[in-house]
Amino acid sequence: xxxxxxxxxxxxxxxxxxxxxxxxxxxxxxxxxxxxxxxxxxxxxxxxxxxxxxxxxxxxxxxxxxxxxxxxxxxxxxxxxxxxxxxxxxxxxxxxxxxxxxxxxxxxxxxxxxxxxxxxxxxxxxxxxxxxxxxxxxxxxxxxxxxxxxxxxxxxxxxxxxxxxxxxxxxxxxxxxxxxxxxxxxxxxxxxxxxxxxxxxxxxxxxxxxxxxxxxxxxxxxxxxxxxxxxxxxxxxxxxxxxxxxxxxxxxxxxxxxxxxxxxxxxxxxxxxxxxxxxxxxxxxxxxxxxxxxxxxxxxxxxxxxxxxxxxxxxxxxxxxxxxxxxxxxxxxxxxxxxxxxxxxxxxxxxxxxxxxxxxxxxxxxxxxxxxxxxxxxxxxxxxxxxxxxxxxxxxxxxxxxxxxxxxxxxxxxxxxxxxxx
Length: 422
Known about the structure:
It is a single chain. This protein has 422 residues and is an all-alpha fold. Helix content is 80%, strand content 0%. It is globular, with a radius of gyration of 20 Å.
């Protein structure tokens, strides 16, 4: 296999800042594709297609989460065995039909198909931007790198969610708000083909130059089944990280489906829904500009544990409905975003600490499999609980699970950063 040697093989952000910035821009485009759906798709289901079942409405999130989770698993193997760049390009190519289907799909089944394609596209493209940034910066700046990566992605999610809400007020739910997807796919694909260079050589360089404490054996490229077992349950640290990632995205999957319907029923207009749906990922995204570097200073564990606890507080605040609906949604979403910002880069950095460079992408793929299964589990849980007890109780159940997850991380997770810090 040929490695692109035109990229100077020196680890570090300063040495590779041009490629790093380009990858940040690409991931903003990736995030924008998810943001297309945050405000409007649940409302398309209820208002345009007349779907009365919460579980059926949330089915698009379930489809997205399951497909993205399994694609993450495959993308890690592909990245370890082939080139990151080719996998990134493939992700964009698969995502090309998505805005067309969202804008003009004649039935709910077409929306589900769009989300299956979006899940594959995200699983390939977002995974590669994560792996490529980790490859470039080396072990000492992983938290910072992941903070920038996720800030770009989820900042774009939030801003796109807000913009689609405004466009829907002006033009209706479809098709105009989804035209933004054409811009994201075109820009992301062209940058990936023309400007992005492969980074697998950097992972090989790190493996040759730097050897962490042997947290996990073997120091070679093992089978996917071996990596899956280690990351999922055999290694105590990686189990703690994987379960926290799953519950974190359970919250996101729940809020994705529940918030537009809950706050619409409470009398919040479409513009207000757009703001509520934007605040969460924007705070989540921008907050990682702070929490990513903090993970490199304070360590991974404090941010993971207290971030989960803060998310549990956010659920309690929203569920109690103390303030008028709009303010409850805005403040609760901001708290949820702060907690998620604390957790997200620290979790990715912790996995990268624990897995040797030669099979780190596969370990990240397994972690992201469990994390993104949280979308499907959260949407399924929310649909079942909402049908039985009401939507507010879906929020309460998510809050309880988040609290328990934080306790598991508190008890079971050892600090990983001290194991790789020079």
